[in-house]
Design brief:
single chain; two-stranded antiparallel sheet; globular; about 280 residues
Length: about 280
């Protein structure tokens, strides 16, 4: 499989067919353009991994995910899909969605008792969707980005389009922050940090990095720690980590400091060059 199976036309191209699923005036474009959303990507992974079927299905179908080249190639595919879905034209986003659905269609996971299940079961896809939406909204809120409560509600509502793209009935997806919170309250009894979730957590704190990327290997663990610290208290407790008001305050302060650091053009460009080298190491 090619490293970058998704292609999208730059939003700055005057000859684009259209502005895609959301458009330049959307809250989605504004939130997803923020550099601090890199922290949200990791936070979403930690949150999504608390559903045992989601993380088991992921790892059981990614046997080489601990290998540096494959791990970063997967990140590149995921990142390009998100960018295409968000900023691509309508046709480009829909083509990317069809490809994702096709990839997921034959995949299954197996519970410890031998029960098999489809990884694209609607309830699992919804959980993945909500993990991404909740993480982006929370990072935008706590990172002191210029978004009001109404903006965050609009973002959640807009993301029902993203849910449909991966195969979720948009009517199932939350349409506001309140509905998103209610969804998590309903889901909590089914969640816990299984062995596979803890394995995924350890993997991000000791990331497999291709040779020649020592700076990335040293720089990723602090970002992973920050992302983990921004999880809601109940999620951190499931992983066995402390969760209290002081932890929340420290996480928010760290997030705001990281946002300021990422706004330094030279630093951010250096980070992106390192990530690009890792993502294309096997090409």
């Amino acid at each position: 499989m090619a490293l970058t199976p998704y292609r999208y036309t730059s939003p700055y191209d005057p000859d684009r067919e259209d502005d895609g699923l959301f458009g330049s005036g959307s809250v989605t474009w504004r939130i997803m353009s923020s550099r601090i959303m890199w922290v949200a990507v990791l936070r979403a992974l930690y949150l999504q991994a608390l559903h045992p079927r989601v993380i088991r299905g992921t790892l059981q179908n990614a046997a080489t995910i601990t290998e540096p080249v494959d791990a970063w190639a997967r990140l590149r595919r995921t990142r390009t899909f998100i960018e295409t879905r968000t900023f691509g034209t309508t046709a480009e986003a829909e083509r990317a969605g069809r490809r994702v659905r096709k990839i997921h269609d034959p995949l299954t996971g197996t519970d410890p008792d031998g029960t098999r299940y489809r990884v694209d079961a609607p309830e699992l896809l919804l959980w993945v969707h909500c993990g991404e939406v909740a993480s982006c909204a929370d990072i935008a809120r706590r990172g002191r980005l210029p978004f009001s409560a109404a903006d965050l509600d609009a973002f959640v509502a807009e993301q029902r389009t993203s849910a449909e793209l991966i195969g979720v009935d948009p009517a199932m997806a939350p349409a506001s922050m309140a509905e998103l919170g209610a969804y998590y309250e309903r889901m909590k009894p089914a969640l816990y940090a299984c062995d596979e979730a803890k394995q995924a957590l350890r993997l991000t704190f000791r990331p497999p990095v291709p040779d020649g990327n020592r700076a990335l290997k040293l720089g990723l663990p602090p970002v992973s720690a920050l992302a983990f610290s921004t999880l809601p208290g109940w999620a951190r407790r499931m992983y066995g980590a402390p969760a209290g008001p002081l932890s929340d305050l420290a996480a928010t302060a760290g997030l705001r400091a990281t946002r300021i650091a990422f706004n330094q053009q030279r630093l951010f460009r250096g980070v992106m060059r390192a990530i690009d080298r890792a993502e294309t190491a096997g090409s």
